[in-house]
Amino acid sequence: MLRIEGLTAGYGRLEVLHDVSLAVPLGIPTVVMGANAAGKTTLCRTITGLIPARGGVVGFDGEDITRLGCAERVRRGVALVPEGRQVFGEMTVRENLRLGAYIHGEPRPADYETVFGLFPILQERENQRAGLMSGGEQQMLALARALMSRPRMLLLDEPSQGLAPKAVEQVGLAVNAIARTGVAILLVEQNLALAQMIARHAVVLENGRCVAEGPADQIMSSSAIQDSYLGRRGN
Question: Which of 31, 118, 122, 214 has its CA at a distance of 20 to 30 angstroms from the CA of residue 93?
């Protein structure tokens, strides 16, 4: 579904990603892991077009989308759940969801049915201001808002950030349910328990470079996690 080849990107004079290549197969949820400042968020932003690639190719469903703008990538089916959730706290749950469908115009009844089926709590709270919800509920709203754009691929940037263990488990169950609907999943995550709950394929970034890629169970139990994800070094 997604294929990254030789990707470089950064900010100003700072190059953050260096010749990154990875794949996210359809039907195989993939996690990108790495220590702080490894380039994980920059990778998400480059895939979604929030920052331009300086080199390499972003391929989606067999098409080169490297030079497409962010809005056009959303229309093609690429959606991001950003780090920190970034819900609109003064707006209601329903208003946040409506914004998620903006790229397609007004939401369809089926759009609401889909997200309320996955997240019944949002239907119960649809007229409540988002800022009054718990962190876990806001993360559910961020997921649902992204789904309102009818994505074919969902990128999640640190969805466990700031959440209690029970809420992290709820997020994992929700992402697995989304994956079963046929949406491709790319998860950026430092919470090993959540990564193990969701991912079948794993990529490890270190200093903006891909240092390991393969089956999630093998990668997460390998020395790549000790050296690159946990930041530990052997003697």
Answer: 31
pTM strictly above 0.70: yes
CB 232 within 8 A of CB 218: no
160-197 residue pLDDT tens:
988 999 999 989 999 999 999 999 999 999 888 899 99
The string of DSSP letters for 51-98 reads S--SEEEEEETTEE-TTS-HHHHHHHTEEEE-TT----TTSBHHHHHH
Any idea where the domains of the chain sit in the sequence?
Answer: 2-229
The CATH code of the domain at 2-229 is: 3.40.50.300
pLDDT digits (tens, 9 = 90+) for 220-230: 887 656 565 65
- Those residues whose C-beta lies under 8 Å from the C-beta of residue 79, and which sit 6 or more positions away, are 48, 146, 147, 149, 151, 153, 154, 155
